[in-house]
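ugh ok so i messed up the first submission bc i forgot one of the chains. this is the corrected input, ALL of the components this time, i swear. 523 residues overall. if the numbers dont match what u have on ur side tell me asap before i send this to the collaborators (the ones from the other lab, u know who)
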Amino acid sequence: MSDEEAPRNLREVCVIGIGTSQFGKFPERPFNALGVEAVRAALADSGVSPKQIQMAYGARIFLEQITAQVVLRDVGIAGIEMINVENACAGGATAVRALWKDIASGFCDIGIAFGVESMTTSPVAGKLIAPSKDDLDGQLGSNMPVVFALIAKRLMATHGATAEDFAQVSVKSHQAAALNPAAQYRKTFTVEEIMASRMVAEPITLLECCPNTDGAAAVVMCSTAMAKKLGKTPIRFLASVLRSSDYFFRKQDLTSFDAGKRAAQDAYEMAGIGPEDLDVVELHDAFAPEELLHYEDLGLCKPGESIALLRSGATSLGGRVPVNSSGGLLSLGHPLSASGVRTICDVVQQLRGTAGPRQKEGARIGLAQMLGGNVNGLEMGAAAVHILAR
Amino acid sequence: MSADPQSNAPPFQAGVFEIDSEGPCLLGSRCQSCGRHFFPRAALCLDCLASDLLPVRLSRSGVLECFTRVHMPAPGFKPPYEVGYVTLPEKLRVFAPIQSDGRTLEVGTKMQLVPFRLIDGDRQAYAFAPVSP
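and heres the new structure output, hopefully the right one now
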């Protein structure tokens, strides 16, 4: 795809409504109640009637079938085409990407994409996500924290990263979350407190791991032409890219995700901008060290300079390009399939100038990235990058 | 967790490794068309798509790329336990349990395969340990 010219007859697509549910642990709340809360909020924000929605994508990993139909049933949307999506943690971003394709190519003018996850009622409640029976690494003691602990060890060997640097990522994320009423955890921590929390997989401590979170996020999207007719201020997609990972045997460098890098490069090319044009970034920080490798894969700094970028404060609130000004997965929370939609909601909020005390002054262009999946034989699962502008 | 080729404990997964008098050995494939090695065994070369793959026994030693000590339980393991990546001469990066036995490990430490037991169901597996000086 990157060698070819992007199709030229695509329509411009935009976001006109965003909504999230409360994020936290709500074992008493059925998953559809979370989904309904987010979808209602997004519809209200867009000012669009449920009856105007032409297409729907719902993302979810755990349990029941026909997630989109069950959630949308309770907001007055039925009978239209609905597609249910699973793409690990990138499921929500995949739903957005699919709706983007439908609107850009003219199959429909307006639709809704959402992701919902009730982690506390899922089979992994209170546990790590278990490896499948035929997953060789999983049978031999691997899991998500282990994968990222090994990456962190490489960052220490090749980049001069320290345990304090990883803790600083979490400090930064909690500082943002403390200012975000939507966050699951709104407490700030010091580097010392993060490092003193329970060791999970060296050098990763408990407060450097994202929590299990219940929640949902939704976006109403339409063609920019339709947004104008509706009298809505569009936040335009400059790029929508989804890539799957290559084979693990081709992976050279443990401190880079090739799929994430390719998705970002293709997105910049599609948007006609470079990483230096970004004002805000929301990315997949399931574990604190992970954020650092994405700095390089997204081109926020040169290869090898991620630690210096973190230490410079450029990615903190008030910095040149705040990363995860929402609090990120680390402290806002990580309802798996919802996160890829939620990152887009947070970027839209920044571009509208409604992020309150977390607002990046004059934010014009933002990037939302989401990765998902871990399986033997492949580098990972899926990588999605969306670039939005006001 | 000592070497016991006579043990009748079942392997944790069939067709992945064998244990002989020299210890465990990983079972891989080599593509006769492009020369690439695969672990575990593959029926198709996932690189050049040729199907003339030869079953091979992979090198028993390699070089440590990184490792971590894990402090939470996982099926088959009692914390703390160690795991990491070892690169074999066949240019394969293999994930496996690590047995440092208190010895200092560094990037580039030469490692060799040793027998290993997963504690759930007493299943046979393999680990990498530093080559004795």
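quick check: The longest helix of chain A spans residues 336-352. that seems consistent at least. The longest strand of chain A covers residues 214-223.
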